[in-house]
Amino acid sequence: MKNPWMDEALALAREGAGRSSPNPTVGAILVKGGEVVGRGYHVHAQVKHAEMVALDEAGLRARGATLYITLEPCSHHGRTPPCADALVQAGIERVVAAMEDPNPAVAGQGFRRLQEAGIAVEIASDYAEDAAALNEAFLHAMKTGRPLVTLKAALTLDGKIAAPEDNSGWITSERARAHVQQIRHGSDAILTGIGTVLSDDCLLTDRTGLERSRPLLRIVADSTLRLPLDSRIVTSARGDLAVLTTSAASADRRRALEQRGIPVLVFDGANGRTDLAKLPEYLASEQYRSLMIESGSKLNWAVLEAGIADKIFFYYAPKILGGLHSLPVAGGTGRQRRTDAIQLNRVKLHAIPPDEFAVEAYLEK
To answer: Which residues does 285 contact at the CB level (< 8 Å), separation at least 6?
Structure first.
């Protein structure tokens, strides 16, 4: 059953997209006598949680009001005191929340604190799916202890990402590429391979122009440190670039990058390659909730083979390259038998008018 106040709370929460990490995105509405008396959404830089912003706006009008919120109020001391306690002190009469907070530090305790104080608590289950989608990366990180990893690619209808010769121009339209920028904006980090940097001299920046809670961390996988010091990604680095390499890489090259303030992460793996499985562990330790991968055929397969990808977002253009030398979305050795194919589920199709579409799906673990 639809509720206009919950709809507005969700709309408010979306205002915090890209601005709340590592915290969840939350929207809150305080309603009294059929009138909104307070609104709020969480922005990490401003510290206060959504319900606290709404309480500040409402002032004394909060007493006897109903709070509509997209996520369970917190019950623990973090950067701020417990929001559940503040709601009790403000005299809130009823709380309607879209879902329980999966953070082990909360996980139902906020609801219990409210109920113990005599506040009615209701779960708006019709909104749980939408609320969860807003905080997909946060929920994933709370449940697994690692960031959500999304493999993105732009493909022709026959699954190619690059031609064997001239690769000027784009596979997908400007509209599709704008959608990619929205996903970048919602991501904490982005990974590419040295091959992509050498061929495209890419920047990998968030080009939406929208406010972020922290810079998008750009990461280059480069086993032998071939990354040019005059490349755009290096010269533009302002504490937002890291390089993955191995102990076999040149010590001089490593020092040159580190002298420019670029951390070099040594993750030794098999066959002289970087161990990609260590990257999510590192990002989790730094409270990065999401990683987007935009790379070439070899690294795409390495990511899939390492099992670190959680989902894909593939953009398809109405084009066919054909041939045996155009690069597929995932190269490498691949799987040798159809029965060993990597399986995906929860497949969604997104139309991109007039003639493109995207496939969003999750890898079976």
So the answer is: none
